[in-house]
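New here. Invent one.

***
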Amino acid sequence: MGIFKEIQNNATNASFLYTDKLLFDFDNLEDVTKAKEKLKSLPGAYLVFVSPSGNGIKAVFQLGRHIKDIDDYKQAYETFAESLEVNTGLIPDKTCDPRRLCFLSHDKELFFNPDAKPICIPIKQVYRAETALLKPVYRAKTTLCAKIAYSDKEQNIIAIISSIVRRSKPGNRHQCRLKAGYSLGGYIGAGEIEEQKALNALIPIIQRNTDNFTKSIRTFKDAMIEGKKNPRQFLDVSKSFDGLFIPNHLLESDIKIGAKLVYALLAKYSEGGECRPKQETISKLLKIPKRTLSNYLEELNKKNYIDVIPGNSFKKEANRYFFIK
């Protein structure tokens, strides 16, 4: 589906001008009606109808901008096809060619939404996760999407979760995805960020850190479901007490006393629920080695007392610590 220079039986790559839609074909479905309802409810659904065969569905989704290259189209198609499989359990036809002909069907209950909200799909070769982490909107050159605005709090949440995924290495990636998904689920459960809004930013980052996207996103979403059962919010500890003080919920916990002192010192520097003291400062005040401090910070993070956005080591930036509850 696209716009071409000329109409031919076998249009060439050179004749392809652009398209702002993706067409998916679902064949041999067990329950056509149920599949149709699933596809209609998805963001970006522009046109959904029963195939001429009667046992399949054709679905068209609206993109946020024009695709002018066949290879970019294939990437966008494959990326969104994976997302469709994960979110609906429906597997579309693997043919990703905008030149492919499509037969319309006389479906009396055809779904048509001319005001469909454009979907956001990354182009893998040119996408850089860093450009989306701390910016209020996506840049058009890096994604096929309309601009999406994020509040400061939402940007911080995305940066926290993405840092967990990006720090993962072979051997611990599964555990990192579980932690990232669980943490995001907590923020979603507390109403701190909308699920789809978060996934729009995070899915490209997960894709860049896996060899099996379908399996990885399933792990991430399973953990997210569990995390929703335990809501988490940023906690402004500066308003909870004055001075260097350990709150009761931390005092009664089973974490090491050193970690409790680190938390108390972080709280002293807190403004609006976050702080960014240098580790050298904390280490000097508590008179403990940096490695010991790192262990205490890691314990606080693992036990869900703080979330962390690592600073840029090349710019000698301090980490950002967020208190959560």
